[in-house]
């Protein structure tokens, strides 16, 4: 299993480790990744450093650290901005950090999964795949491309016992969300607590999600019980997205 050091990636790592999986943690810093792996329950965990800003380097690092039978495709997001400010360079960088590394990791792990006739590719996407987010134009455009890529991949890999799905988080309480709330508060001239309270009013279950909430869903998708689920995205958002 390939996971992350903080936030949603760490929640997935913990959830799978609790179930007895040997987890490999990746992040930009080797020591931080090693510390995150060392803190997991169970044995057999590992770690390595890679930077999603370098898609070819990520693919090479994953190939060297593998093989993996379950892989979390958890790229960083992209800086905020409206569509009128989405430059060609901004769009290119969104593709380079959010789509090309996914393709690179898939290239590194899918052949082994096909040989084993078993594998799980599970991406973290965003509610923007269902409802575009005007303030996250670059991310919104590329997330849809990621979803299309995963859908095509699910068709190709299904006959070999490999499922391909994505989890669609709503508001998950991580460093990233806390920074986004702080930035929104600065723009609106209010406090992060006020931003949080306004968002909570939009979430039917009345709280932000936790990395563990997402980890439990990913763990289910990673298991044999989810063998018939592929080519789809499943929301984990407390009812936040108002779409069917
Ligand atoms: N939190 C939410 O509410 C939410 C909602 C929808 C979608 N998402 C998406 O879910 C994904 C994860 O979000 P999060 O909230 O878990 O973020 P986070 O708390 O900021 O964690 C980001 C993780 O990615 C790693 N990372 C960051 N930049 C990297 C890079 N260039 N190369 C390699 N690893 C990198 C970090 O590890 P190191 O710092 O150790 O490198 C860390 O483990 C993002 O794509 C985000 O857009 C999040």
From TrEMBL:
Entry EC no(s): 1.1.1.100
Lineage top rank: taxon: Bacteria
Molecular function terms, GO-annotated: 3-oxoacyl-[acyl-carrier-protein] reductase (NADPH) activity
Pfam families noted in UniProt: adh_short_C2
Keyword Acetylation: no
Keyword Metal-binding: no
Alphabetical keyword list: Oxidoreductase
Enzyme class: oxidoreductase
Family per similarity comment: Belongs to the short-chain dehydrogenases/reductases (SDR) family.
Protein name as annotated: 3-oxoacyl-[acyl-carrier protein] reductase
